[in-house]
Structure formats: structure tokens, C-alpha cells
Design a protein that fits this description.
heterodimer, A: about 190 residues, alpha/beta, 6-stranded parallel beta sheet, about 20% strand, B: about 200 residues, about 35% helix
Chain lengths: ~190, ~200
């Protein structure tokens, strides 16, 4: 049976947001970028690796990034953690640091398990990301469309780096585009 | 089954931590929850001590984040074998970033001392020094004797630390009296921040 084409937005505006996030992070002097790779963050990760003013850290598990963010903030550096929604579940106990140490923290999370998801294994965690983060004391914002992204990340960065807040921005799967498994298999 | 020598050595954990902190100069010490936190407190409180009371598995990452943010400050993570086992991937991340100002000292007694002295994996074959080296931290050593401990202390506070360094220190299994430092994470973090000259909000 043929799979119908995906309903992904591929206009120019829709593909510029990673660069806009990068510019916001640069504007806020973010100097540590920690990530577990995700396709939705690939452009931002590339930009970060190419930037001499950013230490870009590939993590073995997302929770490393949470503890690193506390170390960075104690040392006076601004950091961000990039992860996929599945990684939020890996962080739960480590996020105790948010309340125990009242640490500023900024998470940018690419969502799976929603818009056009092909892989049902992504759904259990993806559907609980917001609840899990709120349970651990973070404020959650959600960008559903490309024009939302830059202002939302900027607002979040301000709350974190000027307000000392703990904020996660969810980048919806609609924004990123559903992963095309058929295309990958055809390669 | 391979049996390592964890838990069979006479070094006393309190003496180890006292020796490592004695000539500390500006070194920041981060201790993992449980005995390492009590050991660090027993050696003497300092604004440059950060005691973890939770977040198990995060001690090395916390040290890495700080070491990368402040390359002018020596950072030493004091952690038990259980703590390290929970976050072994951090060896790989430390190797990838290779900050010369970061050291990890593992107080290895092969036991989960805080929860009833259950045997940890290091008592039955896992050699955390070899794990660290296999992850890419060339500078990984095992310390069994007082002279080796004295060498380690010197290396920790050297002007030009050739880190990252991982030292697995084999200690006697016995528990020590608890020595309880502040449990206020907000205060401990601000105190350290202030001592490092970092402005708060």
C-alpha cells in the first residue's frame, strides 16, 4: 500500500527558524550548547559547532546536560540544552536541581510523537513532555509555527538569563516536519 | 568472574579527602551525595565546596559544566563508585571536551555505603579507571597507597594541571561518622558563585 505524501511545510520561512534560534542564543551570549542529536536540531547543532564563541558538547544522555547547566551557571556561563522529546524522560530526577538550587535553565525540545508521527514508540513520552517538565517545576512554551519560534525563544532566553527562570520551549513536530521513514529507507 | 581489588585496601576515606583538600588553594571541590559529601564536610567547610545531596549520576557533569565555564579554576569532583556507575557516559563527554582543569577522584570501596553496604559493580569486575581510559581519558590512574595519594594531591593543585584526570582511589570499606554540611542548594550555589566572582541576577 502506498503511503500518501507527508504534510510538511517546506517554504523558506519554515526552514529559517534554526538560524533564528542561533541568532537569539548568540545575542544572549550563550557559550555552552549541550545536545543529544535530533534531526530537528541538526541545523542549529551545525551552526553551534561552527561558532568559536560556543563550546558545543555532545552528550551521552540528556541528564548530563541538566547537571552541566548548573555547573555553567555557577561559573557565570549561559548554556542551552537541545534534545528530542524522548530525552525529557531521561532527565526527570536530575531536574531536581532546578528547585533544589534554583538554577536558570533553558531547554529547546524538538517534539516527536504528534503531528504525522509514523513511529508509535515516540508517543508515550512525547505526549507527556509538557506534564513531565511542569511536574519538575519548569515553565513550558510551545512553538507550533515558524513565525512563533524566534520571539518565543527570545522571550524564554530573557526569562532564563535575566530572570533566573527554568524554561523549556517545545518545537512542535508540525513545525519541524514529520520524519519521513520511507524516504530514509529509499536512500 | 573477575574480581577487582575494590574494597580491599587500607586507605581511609576521611584521610584521603583531608589529604586532597589540605593544600587546595583555589580548587573547587564538588562531592556526590552520601559519604563523599560527609567526607568533604569533615575535611573542613569552604565556599569552594559544593555538596550534592541528590541528583545522583550528575556529579561529573556538574564539574564539567563548571570547568568549561571557568578554565582558570581547578575543579575536582569527589564521587563514590555508585555515583560514577550511574553516570559512566560522562567519562566519554569529559574525554570529548578534555578540560585540563577538571579532575575526578573516585572513592571506590565497592559498596553502596548509604543504603546498607550492598556490593557495587566495582566489587565484581568493573574497573572504573580502565573504563575512564577506554572512554578516552588517558590520564586515568589507580591510587592504593599513601605515597600515591600524596602524588595525586600534588597533581590536583598543580599550577598547570594536565587534565582531565581520573583517579580511582581504593579505600577501606568501613563507614565513617556522618558529618552533615548545609543541605541548602540555593545557598551553596550562590556561595560558590560569589566566591568565584560571578554576579548573580
Amino acid at each position: 500500500m502506498q503511503t500518501p505524501p507527508l504534510i510538511n511545510d517546506t517554504t523558506d520561512a519554515a526552514t529559517h527558524w534554526p538560524r533564528q534560534i542561533f541568532d537569539v542564543l548568540r545575542g544572549y551570549d550563550v557559550s555552552q550548547v549541550c545536545y543529544v542529536p535530533d534531526g530537528g536540531h541538526a541545523d542549529l547543532i551545525r551552526l553551534s559547532h561552527g561558532c568559536d564563541d560556543m563550546v558545543t558538547v555532545s552528550l551521552t544522555t540528556e541528564e548530563e546536560g541538566i547537571a552541566m547547566a548548573l555547573g555553567a551557571s555557577i561559573g557565570g556561563a549561559r548554556s542551552v540544552i537541545l534534545m528530542q522529546s524522548s530525552g525529557v524522560g531521561n532527565c526527570i530526577n536530575m531536574l531536581s536541581l532546578v528547585q533544589s538550587c534554583r538554577m536558570p535553565i533553558l531547554l529547546l525540545i524538538t517534539m516527536r510523537g504528534e503531528w504525522g508521527e509514523f513511529n508509535p514508540w515516540q508517543v508515550p513520552m512525547g505526549s507527556q513532555v509538557q506534564a513531565a517538565l511542569e511536574m519538575m517545576g519548569l515553565q513550558v512554551m510551545r512553538a507550533d509555527t515558524a513565525p512563533d519560534v524566534a520571539p518565543m525563544v527570545k522571550a524564554a532566553a530573557r526569562q532564563v538569563f535575566e530572570g533566573g527562570g527554568a524554561v523549556a520551549v517545545l518545537l512542535s513536530q508540525r513545525l519541524i516536519g514529520a520524519k519521513d521513514f520511507n524516504k530514509e529507507a529509499a536512500k | 568472574m573477575t574480581v577487582t581489588d575494590a574494597g580491599t585496601h587500607p586507605l581511609n576515606r576521611r584521610e584521603v579527602v583531608r589529604t586532597l583538600t589540605a593544600d587546595r588553594q583555589g580548587t573547587v571541590f564538588i562531592s556526590s551525595l552520601g559519604s563523599p559529601t560527609y567526607d568533604l564536610a569533615a575535611a573542613g567547610d569552604s565556599a569552594r565546596n559544593f555538596y550534592l545531596w541528590g541528583a545522583m549520576g550528575g556529579a561529573m557533569s556538574l564539574g564539567l559544566g563548571l570547568a568549561l565555564a571557568r578554565r582558570d579554576v581547578a575543579v575536582c569532583v569527589l564521587a563514590g563508585d555508585g555515583e560514577i556507575l550511574m553516570g559512566m557516559g560522562s567519562f566519554a563527554t569529559i574525554a570529548q571536551q578534555a578540560p585540563s582543569n577538571l579532575a575526578v577522584v573516585i572513592l571506590d570501596n565497592g559498596l553502596y555505603g548509604e543504603t546498607g553496604e550492598q556490593r557495587s559493580h566495582t566489587a565484581s569486575g568493573t574497573d572504573l579507571c580502565r573504563v575512564a581510559r577506554a572512554c578516552g581519558i588517558e590520564n586515568s590512574i589507580t591510587v592504593r597507597t599513601l605515597p600515591e595519594l600524596a602524588d595525586l594531591a600534588q597533581r590536583l593543585h598543580a599550577d598547570d594541571p594536565a587534565g582531565p584526570l581520573v583517579a580511582r582511589v581504593l579505600i577501606a570499606p568501613g563507614p565513617e561518622r556522618t558529618c552533615l554540611p548545609s543541605r541548602d542548594g540555593v545557598w551553596l550555589a550562590r556561595r560558590l558563585q560569589q566566591d568565584l566572582g560571578v554576579k548573580g541576577l
